Amino acid sequence: MIGNWEINGLDEADLHYVLAEANADAACRLSQDMLNGTYQSTWSHAKVLMSLVHHSVELFIKYALARAGQQVPRHHYIRELHQLYVSAYNGQEFAFEPPFIVQFMEHSVDQTRQAILAEKNDRNQTDQMLRYHADRNGSPWKNIIKKVWEADPLLCPKCQKEMRIVALIDEREVIERILRHLGLWQQGVRVIPGPDPPGDWVIEPCLDETLPDYDTDPDLIYANA
Fold first, then answer.
1. Which positions ≥6 away from 40 have C-beta within 8 Å?
2. Where do the structural domains in the chain lie, given as residue ranges?
3. Buried b (16+ CB within 10 A) or exposed e, 90-101
4. What dihedral do alpha carbons 118, 123, 125, 128 form, nearest 10°?
5. Which stretches within 150-202 are classed as H helix?
6. Residue 208 has pLDDT above 70, yes or no
7. 56-59: long-range contacts at Cβ-Cβ below 8 A with a sequence spacing of 24 or more?
8. pLDDT tens per residue, range 184-193
9. Contact 58, 76 (CB under 8 A)
C-alpha cells in the first residue's frame, strides 16, 4: 500500500529530491517506451514527457538550494533558480547547464536584456507551456516563438496573412520526396572521420546505481504555485 505516511519526518530538501528523482525516472521510462513504440509518439504525449523533465530539473535545483540553507522560491522559473544555484554552489565541480533556459539568438545585448526582463515578468511561462496547449488568454504558444525569434512561423511570407495547419507530415521518405520535387532537398555533408586516438580504448562498466531511496510521496505544495 502506498500512502503519504512514507514522507513523515523528511525535511524540505529531501522532499524536493525524491520528487525530482520520481519525475526523472518517469521521464526516462516514457522516453524508452516511446522509442519502443509502447508509448504514443504525439505532440501531446511529448509535452507530458518534457513536463516531467522540466519538473525534475526544477525540483533538483530546489533540493540543492534547500540543502545549502537557502530560501527556496515557489515559482518554476529555471533561469532564476539556476542563478541562485550558482551563487550557492560556485565551485567548478558543481557547475552544470540545465535545460529549459531560453537562448535569445541573434539578439543584441540590449534586446537580450529586454527579452529576459519580459520573460521574468511571467516566470512560470515555460512550465505552463509544457502543461497546456494555450496560454491563460487562450492564445497558442506560437506567440513564444515570435518573442524569441521575432518571427511568426504561421505568417505567410508572400501575403503576410496567417496560415492554417492542414496536415502534419512526419515520415522522412514523404518529406524527402516533397522537398526534392520542390528543389529544396539538400543532402548532408559527409564528414570523413579522422584517425583514432593513440592508445587502447578503455571500456568501463556503467553500473546501474540508483539515487538514494528516501521512500516518499510527491510534495504537492507547488501544484498551484
1. 34
2. 8-99
3. eeeeeeeeeebb
4. -170
5. 172-181
6. no
7. 56/20, 56/21, 56/23, 56/24, 56/27, 57/20, 57/98, 57/99, 57/100, 58/20, 58/127, 59/16, 59/17, 59/19, 59/20, 59/23
8. 877 554 545 5
9. yes
